[in-house]
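Notes from the 1:1 (GR / supervisor)

We went over the backlog. Supervisor wanted to see one worked example end to end before approving the batch request, so GR pasted a single chain during the call. The sequence is below; no edits were made to it. Supervisor asked that the structure be written out right there so they could see what the output format looks like.
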Amino acid sequence: MPQTPEPTRRLFFALWPDAAVREALATVSGQQLRRVKRVPPANLHLTLVFVGPVTEPVQQCLEAGAGRIVAPPFDLQVDHAGHWPRPRISWIGPTRIPAGLWTLVTALREAQAACGLEPEIHPYQPHVTLARKTPSASVVGEFGPIHWSIRQFSLVESVTDPAGVRYLPLRGWALEGQ
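Structure output shown during the call:
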């Protein structure tokens, strides 16, 4: 009799915005993008580490690793719009990446590796995806910076259902380092 595969959840670590930052991100999205389907405001976030589909024991390992991270809070200024022709993503992100963000991403990648998972091989480029499948001409003009005070990070599940993709924060950890 074939063995039933263990259920998995599709997870990632992210900076999850508070209501004020989420509203500012959604406002910029509306100003930057015309005539394209934008990411719903409830899904706006900044990915730290994409994990992918994992079983419950691996999720527990990731949560334990995240709980051991000691990293200081930091401030992030989202002030730059961009577009990647492949995979046709319009995004906004910081021009300057604060040291605290690098510290957090490095620690999360180490936690991921400690759980037996392959860390992302692409260089990290922090961004908030505003829209997918967009032509480069969809990004229009400048915007005032969004100031984002980073005091915690979250483990988030990506759930696909008939209505589309939803991101559900599962758990968060405070940044309380040095």
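Supervisor's comment: The mean pLDDT is 91.
Batch request approved.
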